[in-house]
Here is the input.
Amino acid sequence: MTKHSKRYREAETKVDRARRYEPTEALALLKNLPAPKFDESVDVVVKLGIDPRKSDQLVRGAVSLPKGLGKSVKVVVFAEGDKADAAKEAGADEVGSAELAERIAGGWMDFDIVIASPDMMKHVGKLGKVLGPQGKMPSPKSGTVTPDVANAVQEFKAGKVEFRTDAGGNVHAPLGKRSFPVEDLEANLRAFLGHLEGMRPGAVKGTFMRKVSVSTTMGPGAWIAWEA
Here is the structure.
């Protein structure tokens, strides 16, 4: 059983777990809970009505959040020639091909996003066992395998987030920092949930988005009443 801090337990008394809050109210509540000494992230978790054992029901993608994430995102790019130059100009933290793949295979993982030009998948494909478990394997569905690597770098640097269903059928995503105004967090929340709703797999029957919860890094979650 997890032993929570005094601050967490105090915060928990202020959240009604039997209630579904309106988004604005839930986010304002999170901002007013007892805070740690750092600027926490605010995250959303959505319980989907899917069978995560069936590949045709899995959800994976990426969405640009209108208010950004309030943090620096480290992006590495697999590209050569003009595309490599364009990626560097767009702000990529590391750019390379075979030598970059060797470095990652050797244990270097100091980055958040991997973007690859399609012709570089011959190198990236060998990193599945390393990048896959970290959720960092590039994919066309999430916009991280693309001929326009420079544009992808700009989007992810500006606040585009990747997401994918986990083994329990949940989707997690960051919404920004606790220091953000409530309206900025809500704009990001609505952008994320609206995008996710449009990704409902055809094989899914019944309610697609069953439960939505928002929380800070070190705090309890609050359920949200979500209507598209």
